[in-house]
UniProtKB/TrEMBL annotation:
It comes from Corynebacterium glutamicum (strain R). The lineage of its organism: Bacteria, Bacillati, Actinomycetota, Actinomycetes, Mycobacteriales. It comes from the Bacteria. The keyword Transmembrane helix applies. This is Multidrug ABC transporter permease. Keywords: Membrane, Transmembrane, Transmembrane helix. The keyword Repeat does not apply. The chain crosses the membrane at residues 21-39, 51-73, 106-128, 153-173, 180-200, 232-251.
């Protein structure tokens, strides 16, 4: 079974690296993330109190706001592209155990997203430092800064959870436009809008999955006292793995 899994991962890797959209969307992650880091560093001139400090969290804002969105879209396309072009039949003929295909795709892109996110975080830190004034640059000592060290594991973990969440949605819907639209609406609007509704709004605001993920990423506690921001990641992870498990069940039961 492990041999089948490894061979499937190899075949999925070949599909991935021979897809042009994968490369240009990956380039977008770097452009968005490093572009914002460059802007942050350039503005840290040290000429005023506001520009005196270079904060680790500020340098990776582009990754948080835009880079993660591209990772979400890529993770969806890992599953839906084959259904769009009708290649899934050949894939399942080669690997009859469909769950192996799903897990292989998920694991492959999860590892890629985690590694890419970590590398991007480090590049953002050092690019911002390089462009900041000497005074501002000295306020961010990457490997000694508490916030920077947290971001180094926090952002890759968030990327892994987002990949799992979006993979589940993709397996359930099997359609790129629908899955992307749902995830982006959920990510940007649904929980925020529902939080204004009477009665249920308070609970949506506290226990929406993305609300808790935001609390984890920003390290800002926005839910009940006693529930740490790290618990927000655990909560989002529960949503992600339940959706992924349901997606595999649907994949096994529906026609290819």
């Amino acid at each position: 079974m492990w041999t089948t899994m490894i061979n499937t991962i190899r075949s999925e890797w070949t599909k991935l690296v021979t897809t042009k959209s994968f490369w240009w969307t990956t380039a977008l992650i770097l452009v968005f993330s490093l572009g914002y880091a460059a802007l942050t560093g350039s503005l840290a001139t040290g000429e005023s109190f506001a520009s005196l400090f270079l904060l680790a969290g500020s340098t990776v804002t582009g990754l948080y706001l835009l880079g993660f969105v591209v990772i979400m879209i890529q993770s969806i396309m890992m599953f839906t592209t084959e259904f769009r072009f009708g290649y899934q039949t050949q894939t399942f003929l080669a690997t009859p155990k469909r769950w192996v295909v799903a897990v292989s795709k998920w694991l492959l892109y999860l590892v890629f997203a985690v590694v890419l996110t970590f590398i991007t975080v480090i590049l953002c830190f050092y690019l911002a430092k390089a462009l900041a004034s000497d005074t501002a640059s000295s306020t961010l000592v990457v490997w000694e800064d508490t916030q920077a060290r947290r971001i180094m594991w926090q952002y890759p973990l968030a990327a892994a959870l987002l990949v799992t969440f979006c993979s589940g949605i993709a397996l359930l819907l099997r359609q790129t436009a629908g899955a992307v639209a749902l995830v982006l609406m959920w990510h940007f609007a649904i929980e925020n809008l529902l939080s204004f509704l009477p009665r249920i709004g308070e609970y949506v605001g506290k226990y929406g999955p993305f609300t808790n993920l935001y609390a984890f990423i920003t390290d800002y506690q926005s839910i009940d006292p006693g529930w740490s921001t790290t618990m927000g990641a655990v909560y989002f992870g529960a949503w992600a793995f339940v959706l992924f498990a349901l997606g595999i069940v649907v994949l096994e039961k529906k026609d290819a």
